[in-house]
Amino acid sequence: MALNRSLKIAPSILSADFANFGAECEAIEAQGADWVHVDVMDGHFVPNITFGPSTCAAIRPHIKGVMDVHLMIAPVDPYIDAFAKAGADVITAHVEAGPHIHRTMQAIRAAGAKAGVALNPGTPASSVEYLLDMVDLVCVMTVNPGFGGQKFIHSQVEKVRQLRAMIGDRPIHIEIDGGVDATTAPLVVAAGADVLVAGSAVFRGGSVSNPAPYGANIKAIRDAVLSTTV
Fold this sequence. Notes:
Blueprint: E1 8-11, H1 21-30, E2 35-41, H2 53-59, E3 66-72, H3 80-85, E4 90-94, H4 101-110, E5 114-119, E6 137-141, H5 156-167, E7 173-177, H6 185-191, E8 195-198, H7 200-203, H8 212-229
Parallel strand pairs: 1-8, 2-3, 3-4, 4-5, 5-6, 6-7, 7-8
């Protein structure tokens, strides 16, 4: 997974049909998704429970591209190997989830995955300054983690700008997770983001039997970004 800073859309399967995950992953990729984003929640770090390593292992054969696994769990370290073995290409852990985030990034890379670090809306960009030489992705939460369908928190756009300046020429993605749609996507891309996680904005109106709306929704996000950058 070499660094490519072209715009990537990563639909979150949190908004997919839970009874049909494999087909949903295939459908969104066929409709133009670049990555598949898996939101893992534990009911402890965030007030919701979603998927575990077994779900990731089950959907991995249905994903041709990047499986992007976002761990909203605490503790993180005991589960890294399981998610890596399940086929995660990127494993992202929250800087707020434990006292030894540097060790967590080391463990993710040692397990063979790309290392991502996520920041909640109230966490400053400076919290990851001393991690930038050992991460592959920084995820900026533009909603409070735990639920899909929330409204975008506009104060986070400035955080993206700060991170882009801090990162410089390092080969690090900036990912945005929360409230991404055709209105907010141009704001964060202009600030320096290159990976956009979108749930309801992608899955709205479509289904496995009618996947065309997925493609139209993905295209709408891409077109909105392009129309403001050309």
